[in-house]
Design a protein that fits this description.
The chain has nine helices and eleven strands. The strands form two sheets. A seven-stranded parallel β-sheet has the order 7-6-5-10-8-11-9. Helix 1 packs parallel to helix 2 and helix 5 runs parallel beside helix 9.
């Protein structure tokens, strides 16, 4: 059983990336039935280097520890998720000398979508992910599993009020770009794509909240050519992040 002061992380890639990133891990459990494989061997080696105990247990014990999640025979126990402060994150970005690229979600309540957005954000070089306290999923084992290890490397900021955060970032020279299927201009044609920016991804169907949309410095669309002119939130975020990364290359 885990305590109230710990979390579970399930799956080969999320657990491996926790260890690769040097994140705190208290214990790793591996199902005896998994057998050897390069990834399992890597998990064992990384855990040994970090002096993290590894126990080999039966599949039923793994099922119990994973609390119903798809675990691939690997579960880790770790401290609560390490959110970072916005000022701390901005300080890191300033020190890196790169143009700020942040991602925020607004109304994205599906944990699989949130995990996939985090995965795309990390893959395309975003500096961090902003998650509002309201109208969004939080970091859960399902989100970490869907992120496939990206959240071991991607800083995450929990914000009380997204609109106020956008205003504060604007004062620090970070533009807010909102994704909306009805946006007036294609993302690639926006004058802000190469500037320090915060990409805001709204919920499927409802999109961004009205106040969030009004606070955006630009509202953009993705060019859609097919008969079904819609993408789910995580796919739209991935496409937009690719374009932002391409224009900054």
């Amino acid at each position: 059983m885990r305590s109230d002061r710990s979390r579970i992380v399930v799956g080969i890639h999320p657990v491996r990336e926790l260890l690769r990133a040097g994140r705190a891990v208290s214990r790793v459990s591996i199902a005896a039935s998994r057998g050897a494989s390069p990834l399992i061997d890597d998990i064992r080696s990384l855990a040994a280097q970090a002096e993290v105990p590894v126990d080999e247990v039966d599949r039923g014990t793994i099922d119990e520890r994973a609390e119903g999640l798809v675990h691939q025979g690997v579960v880790a126990h770790a401290p609560p998720f390490p959110f970072v402060g916005l000022d701390e994150l901005l300080g890191r970005i300033d020190a890196s000398g790169t143009a700020t690229l942040l991602v925020a979600v607004d109304g994205v309540t599906d944990p699989h979508n949130l995990g996939s957005i985090a995965r795309s954000a990390e893959s395309f070089g975003a500096h961090g992910l902003l998650i509002p306290d309201r109208r969004a999923a939080s970091i859960t084992p399902t989100v970490e599993k869907s992120a496939a290890g990206a959240l071991a490397h991607l800083p995450v900021v929990s914000v009380t009020n997204l609109v106020r955060t956008m205003a504060g970032l604007h004062d620090r020279g970070v533009w807010s770009i909102g994704l909306d299927a009805d946006g007036p201009v294609d993302l690639a044609d926006s004058s802000l794509v190469a500037e320090p920016c915060l990409l805001i991804v709204g919920a499927e169907g409802d999109g961004m909240a009205r106040l969030t949309r009004e606070r955006c410095d630009a509202v953009v669309r993705l060019p859609m050519r097919g008969a079904v002119a819609s993408l789910n939130a995580s796919v739209a975020a991935g496409v937009a992040l690719y374009e932002l990364a391409r224009q900054r290359a």
